[in-house]
Design a protein that fits this description.
The chain is of the alpha+beta class. It has three domains: 2-82 and 387-470, no CATH class; 91-112 and 267-356, no CATH class; 132-234, Chitinase A, domain 3 (Roll). It is 54% helix and 11% strand. The protein contains 19 helices and ten strands. β5 (219-221) and β6 (224-234) form a beta hairpin. The two termini are 22 Å apart.
């Protein structure tokens, strides 16, 4: 349903450019500006009001304003150059450059012994019990959450009695059908075959320590007390999996060598996350449209020997994340944010080391990635009808763009077309061509929408606010 797609865009475009929203407009009736165009409060209300399925809310007004800015800027860029070559993609290229040079560094400095003899491989196969599965039965005795110590003791006594009977050779399946208090009772407690990581840890540990026919000690899990008996163990032969296992073992060696190298490189730098950095980072993730310049942008979040991770650098990274990822950071604990900041700092160090060694993103690689980005952007703009804006009779270019963008937003609001957020490109377009949304006008738009809708047709219960993880940035 397309209205769901619009709801997602509402969530993903909130606070697209909060710093712009804080700017002082000389015209209180203006909701947004973009490349010389203006969206007035009255025009925005007239755009939204006829679509009664769209609630009159601040977040909806904000989303529409941000989409209007993005689409107006994209149409303006397309009018100036249909190849969109004038759009500066350097900020969007940075993550590709960084990943490329770190990979080149890895290939250049990390040597891995990829030769593993058959004897070494077989020993590793036996040590790790590769792809081993166990078939077991159990008897589960549940313990009420409010059980008294006496009741708990009586349940444990019963479990020990059942284990003792199983050790004498009594039919385990029959006892499970009689005593087990879970769904497996009807199958005689049969848990079928399971591998590592497929059952709760205490149950797994007990089962994999037993041989077929053995009964284990009584174990406790959140479900209750378990008496367990292993029926069978099965494992693919060494010959069956040798080739794939060898590839995995070599890959593990490579990953471990890489981990040791990069940890050694980072450990010498005394990375320190500064006081207040986690909350600063959280706020940047909440409002990625913030325009950090001067002292605000140069403020260090993390320091290390010979450098720092600044707020502006963190902002550039955050703008490349999808809204749900930014939302996760906003909701994260201080320790989790600290780990993210430390990880980004280590990555910065790795990139610097790669470039120190003369490794970089080539001009050919740059051109290739840019061409792909521009092709995807042209495809999206063409699908939205923004690549071919032609003025009608007695219509200026600006009026033609306004007409096209208004028609596109009307189609989105009327559920006739899906919205498409521009993601990180939104920030690039606004920086290059100029774009701003005035959040102090949101309430005025909401009031005008409500005044234009008959009270009897106004929804009594507005749709639920979109999920918080998507509530930041221009859809990127």
């Amino acid at each position: 349903m397309r209205m769901f797609a619009f709801a997602v865009v509402v969530a993903s475009t909130l606070s697209a450019c909060d710093s712009f929203g804080e700017a002082v407009s000389s015209h209180t009736g203006v909701l947004a500006r973009a490349a010389g165009h203006e969206l007035s409060v009255d025009a925005a209300a007239a755009l939204i009001a006829p679509h009664r399925a769209v609630p009159a809310r601040r977040d909806v007004v904000e989303a529409i304003a941000n989409l209007w800015v993005d689409y107006t800027l994209l149409a303006t860029a397309a009018m100036r150059d249909s190849t969109l070559s004038s759009i500066d993609l350097d900020a969007l290229l940075e993550p590709f450059r960084d990943r490329s040079v770190v990979w080149k560094l890895r290939e250049s400095v990390i040597a891995v012994d990829s030769v593993i003899s058959d004897d070494e491989l077989r020993a590793l196969y036996e040590e790790r019990e590769v792809d081993l599965e166990v078939r077991a039965r159990h008897i589960l005795l549940t313990i009420p959450t409010d059980a008294s110590p006496a009741l708990r003791d009586s349940i444990r006594d019963l479990a020990e009695q059942l284990r003792a009977r199983a050790l004498t050779g009594e039919d385990f399946a029959a006892m499970a059908r009689q005593y087990s208090q879970d769904g497996s009772a009807q199958q005689g407690g049969d848990l079928s075959y399971f591998g590592r990581g497929q059952v709760m840890a205490p149950l797994e540990e007990a089962a994999f320590a037993l041989q077929p026919g053995q009964v284990g000690d009584v174990i406790e899990t959140p479900l209750g007390l378990h008496v367990i008996k292993v029926e069978d163990r099965r494992q693919p032969s060494f010959e069956e999996i040798a080739d794939q296992f060898r590839e995995n073992a070599v890959a593990e060696r490579s990953q471990e060598a890489e981990r040791l190298y990069f940890e050694g490189l980072a450990d010498t730098l005394s990375i320190v996350v500064l006081d207040g950095a986690t909350e600063n980072a959280r706020e940047i993730a909440r409002t990625p449209g913030t325009d950090l310049r001067g002292r605000a942008g140069s403020r260090s979040l993390v320091r290390y020997e010979g450098g720092a991770l600044t707020a502006a650098e963190f902002l550039q990274v955050v703008r490349t994340w999808d809204p749900p990822v930014r939302g996760q950071l906003v909701a994260a604990t201080g320790d989790q944010i600290r780990q993210v900041l430390e990880g980004l700092t280590r990555n910065k160090v790795f990139v610097a080391e790669a470039r120190r060694q003369g490794l970089d993103f080539s001009e050919q690689e740059t051109d290739s990635v840019q061409n792909v980005m521009r092709m995807q952007l042209r495809t999206a703009a063409r699908g939205a009808g923004l690549m071919s804006v032609s003025p009608q009779e007695d219509e200026s270019v600006q009026e033609a763009i306004d007409r096209k963008v208004t028609a596109l937003l009307t189609a989105i609001l009327s559920d006739q077309q899906n919205a498409f957020p521009l993601g990180p490109l939104s920030y690039t377009l606004r920086s290059q061509f100029g774009g701003e949304v005035f959040d102090r006008s949101f309430e005025s738009v909401v009031a005008r929408i409500e005044s234009q809708r008959p009270p009897t047709l106004s929804p009594t219960t507005p749709p639920a606010t979109p999920p918080a993880p998507d509530t930041a940035g221009a859809g990127g």
